[in-house]
Amino acid sequence: MISPLAPASFPTLPPVHGVQLASYAAGLRYQKRADLMLAALAPGTSVAGTFTQSLCPSAPVDWCRQILSGEGADRQARAVVCNAGNANAFTGEQGHTAAKLTADVIARALGTEAEQVYLASTGVIGETLDTDALAAALPLLVGELSERDALGPEDWQRAAEAITTTDTYPKGAAEPVVGTGTNVVGIAKGSGMIAPDMATMLAFVFTDLAVTPEALQSALSASVVASYNSITVDSDTSTSDTVLLFATGQGQDRGEVITGPESPHWDAFVAALDSVNLSLAHQIVRDGEGASKFITVTVTGAETDRAAHRIGMAIANSPLVKTAFAAEDANWGRIVMAVGKAGERAERDKLTIRIGDELIAEQGWESPTYSEARATEFMKQPEFVVSVDVGVGNGEATVWTCDLGHGYIEINAGYRS
What we know:
Distance between the termini: 17 Å
CATH class of the largest domain: Alpha Beta
Low-confidence stretches: 192-199
CATH architecture of the largest domain: 4-Layer Sandwich
Largest sheet: 8 strands, mixed
Number of helices: 11
């Protein structure tokens, strides 16, 4: 079943010059569907990345970190490869062997170095990859690369579908970089085990602008803060979180290379990147396992923006709050509880809470105008806003979450079966 919060259809994504895509059904875990994705990139493509904060990272995360920031790293990429169904995490030396095998096979096929092949894996933790099956499938994956000069919308959709696990729909987004004739295009996967830092997810974002690796990393590191690091489904952080951003420099209007905020097209590039990342982040929450509500939580009046973010995440992660959302129960005392446990300053007797437009509490007390029936009507909608002001400063933040219902249990109780 597709999430009731899903977009009407996969978006029509424009081509990114210097990117070729392929997908292949290798049978590594799933049958009769693609479970390998390859994006081949033009020589000279810049790359940036952000990764999970888990202390038990997967072998592909270790590989990407090493080649992105290790000694002698040139921060250029010729490919990214992703497999779905197996996270290749907590798999010891065999996991690193499978990662190196993947990079070596793809590098030979594309005539490049293994250190320019980026990797990602998603799926079950603790199960080793079948390296024989992988070695047999990877050359066939390369053989599926489109030979057309420009990608079609169907190429993006197939690639997005190939990286899914418990997702109910593929995720994609695009935004033009105003004034350049180029685009930012991204695909992502994510549905459960979603919480910063980052949200448990994979995202691959591409632009045909020319951007230096240093500027690319600066833009990406800032962009994830208000997108992937501001969503949650279930408070759990995975071993495999990866966001990779690639700039091929092959756009129709190549212009000068973007080196940072002083460059003419910097603001337009950052705006497009932020738009794509936020769209993908929202799509992940909308596909939260078993979700039926998309909830925006805004926090104002905090000591700092960071404090506001922590309070917002305390609300968004609370099982008691999220189950109330699922039941359409305006039990606002649970929101008070979540604010109080966040570990940040909040003035109880100045606390203000709203669900939608309904003022529930003010000055640390239930509002005399409060109507539970009106609050419930807002909660019956598939999307609504919870607003909290904690009354101690000017800090503010917005985070996004979903409800927590029976569907989440059913999906995760039988995930490996």
